[in-house]
Structure formats: C-alpha cells, structure tokens
Amino acid sequence: MPEDPLKVDARARRAAADVIGLYSRHAEKWDAARGAEVRIEGAWLSRFVDGLPPGGRVLDLGCGTGRPLGAWLLEKGFDVTGVDASAPAIDRARARFPAGTWLCADMRSLALGRTFDGILAWDSLFHLTQSDQRALFPVLGAHAAPEAALMFTSGPDAGTAMGEFGGDPLHHASLSPGDYRSRLSAAGFGVLDFRPEDPDCGGHSVWLARRAGAHPKLG
C-alpha cells in the first residue's frame, strides 16, 4: 500500500527544520566522512576561481568544518569568509584555519554589509526548502560584487528528496532549472554553465553563474 503523502510531507518538513540540528549533532562524523582533500569538485572549483582577482574575497555558504573547499581556497591565496549555522562545525574551522573568517550564521538571514568576488554554496543550498531557496537569491545578489562568480549545487529538476546521515533523515530540495534561471536573472546573475547530474562530478548538478553590473542593496 502506498505511503500517505501527508505523512511523507510532514516527515520532509521535520527533516528540513532539523538540518542545522543534524549537522550540529554529527559535526565530527560529517567532518571525518567529508575528508580533507578536494576530489570530484576539483575541475568545477578551478572554473569557479578562474577570473577571480588574486587574493579576492570568497564567501563559502555552508562551509562546514572548513575543509576541503575552504582550505583549498585559502591555499590558493583567497580571502575566505565561511558561514555555517552549525556551531560545532564553525568551531572546528576556526581552530584549523585561523587565516579564514568563520561565522556561525544562517545563510537565509545573512546581511554582512559587504560584497565578495566569489560566492560558493556547494552541497548546502539544496538543504533549504524550495521557498527558502527562492528567498535566498536576493541575499546572494546583495553580497555579490560586480562580475562576482557564483557556484552552487542543486537537484536536476524540481522536487524533494530524503537522504540519511548519522541515522537521521536529511532533507534535500531543488527548484526546476527554469526557476533557478529566473531567480538568478532577477538577482543579476547570468548563467555560464549548468550540468545536471555531471558524471565527472559524482552526479552533482552544478550551476556556475556570473554577476554583472551594480549589486542591489540588501533589505
């Protein structure tokens, strides 16, 4: 007998509300599972930083414990500001990588009052609900300097999917490609590339965009 859709929706809502709690409870386990080395992301990261000014400012949203992506960016000489809502993860990032700036904050309400040459949301934005993702794009635009690069991962099409980590359900959601393109355009970004389920990147669906013109004010 098929499961009641209302129960499925309720489970997804609970999991979406618990993403921060999950990554806080399991920060040590996630850190070990994620590892210290950039692997499948390497080619996309190289494309992301191509054209950024030397020593440019990069905002890493959902930075976790600072590795491997934040550490890779620091090694390349970039000025990294990492943001994550998991306090245990941020504590690890601060202890490991004092050259970076690590902030415990929710990306959905971010208002740093400064802009960045690159914004990265790798395997983080897709933990938000669809409505929260739509509301995030003006925030991204407000933190993007003219010609800033933006890279994030999503699902290949609109929908919600449930994973698992540490024995707890882990929420994922995605907009449709058309919806992402519309939101990006409204925030002042032009799409450079979108690869749904890129086989060379472990099946990640990756967006790369660039900001043009003056950035909108936050608020």
Automatic annotation (TrEMBL):
Pfam families per UniProt: Methyltransf_25 (PF13649)
Name of the protein in its database record: SAM-dependent methyltransferase
Record's keyword annotation contains Methyltransferase: yes
GO molecular function, one term: methyltransferase activity
Tree of life domain: Bacteria
Matching PANTHER family: METHYLTRANSFERASE, UBIQUINONE BIOSYNTHESIS O-METHYLTRANSFERASE, MITOCHONDRIAL
The organism of origin for this protein: Phenylobacterium parvum
Upper lineage: Bacteria, Pseudomonadati, Pseudomonadota, Alphaproteobacteria, Caulobacterales
Residues of the Methyltransferase domain: 58-138
